From TrEMBL:
<dbReference type="GO" id="GO:2000377">
    <property type="term" value="P:regulation of reactive oxygen species metabolic process"/>
</dbReference>
<keyword id="KW-0503">Monooxygenase</keyword>
<dbReference type="GO" id="GO:0005743">
    <property type="term" value="C:mitochondrial inner membrane"/>
</dbReference>
<keyword id="KW-0472">Membrane</keyword>
<dbReference type="GO" id="GO:0008682">
    <property type="term" value="F:3-demethoxyubiquinol 3-hydroxylase activity"/>
</dbReference>
<dbReference type="GO" id="GO:0006744">
    <property type="term" value="P:ubiquinone biosynthetic process"/>
</dbReference>
<dbReference type="GO" id="GO:0008340">
    <property type="term" value="P:determination of adult lifespan"/>
</dbReference>
<dbReference type="InterPro" id="IPR011566">
    <property type="entry name" value="Ubq_synth_Coq7"/>
</dbReference>
<keyword id="KW-0479">Metal-binding</keyword>
<protein>
    <submittedName>
        <fullName>COQ7 protein</fullName>
    </submittedName>
</protein>
<dbReference type="GO" id="GO:0046872">
    <property type="term" value="F:metal ion binding"/>
</dbReference>
<comment type="pathway">
    <text>Cofactor biosynthesis; ubiquinone biosynthesis.</text>
</comment>
<dbReference type="GO" id="GO:0005634">
    <property type="term" value="C:nucleus"/>
</dbReference>
<dbReference type="GO" id="GO:0010468">
    <property type="term" value="P:regulation of gene expression"/>
</dbReference>
<keyword id="KW-0408">Iron</keyword>
<keyword id="KW-0831">Ubiquinone biosynthesis</keyword>
<dbReference type="Pfam" id="PF03232">
    <property type="entry name" value="COQ7"/>
</dbReference>
């Protein structure tokens, strides 16, 4: 296997799933007892399963985590809670922005692994494709729950997605 490519993929995906867990934790802290709480919990449960799998892959492939995990711990929670303070629509706008960014990121990884050798990376491709599909489902749930009606939706979405791009870039490198 191309160890640097696999290491980069597993490290950044672990960081992303860790961050997603913290975002949903922040949203649940604010909206957990509201009508949208069970929906957020359902998405969070899937993210917990994703993180568990990447924790396993980190060990199996002997990949070190990004040194930025303590920062993503705080930043993720603040983003989740902050967007939830805007109400259900704000939380869903955050979900749409993050999940769209992550599914695009997963698609880029799928392309990279397919170009390398789809047979060699069959297991990893299967995992990434499944998780991408879960993220797209979360994206659609956000849209179904009025994400686009959030205050300053386009500004919020653009800002969050710029943050996601920066987080991906940094987590791949350090």
């Amino acid at each position: 296997i191309n160890k640097p490519v696999v290491d980069r993929i597993i490290r950044v995906d672990h960081a992303g799933e860790y961050g997603a867990n913290r975002i949903y934790a922040g949203q649940m802290a604010v909206l957990g007892r509201s009508s949208v709480g069970p929906i957020i919990q359902q998405m969070w449960d899937q993210e917990k399963a994703h993180l568990k799998k990447f924790n396993e892959l980190m060990v199996a492939y002997r990949v070190r985590p990004t040194v930025l995990l303590p920062f993503w711990n705080v930043a993720g929670f603040v983003l989740g809670a902050g967007s939830a303070l805007l109400g259900k629509k704000g939380a869903m706008a955050c979900t749409v922005a993050v999940e769209e960014s992550i599914s695009n990121h997963y698609n880029n990884q799928i392309r990279t692994l397919m170009e390398e050798d789809p047979e060699k990376y069959k297991e990893l491709l299967q995992i990434i494709k499944q998780f991408r599909d879960d993220e797209l489902e979360h994206h659609d749930i956000g849209l179904e729950h009025d994400a686009e009606a959030a205050p300053v939706y386009s500004v919020l979405k653009t800002t969050i997605q710029l943050g996601c791009k920066a987080a991906i870039f940094l987590s791949e490198k350090i």
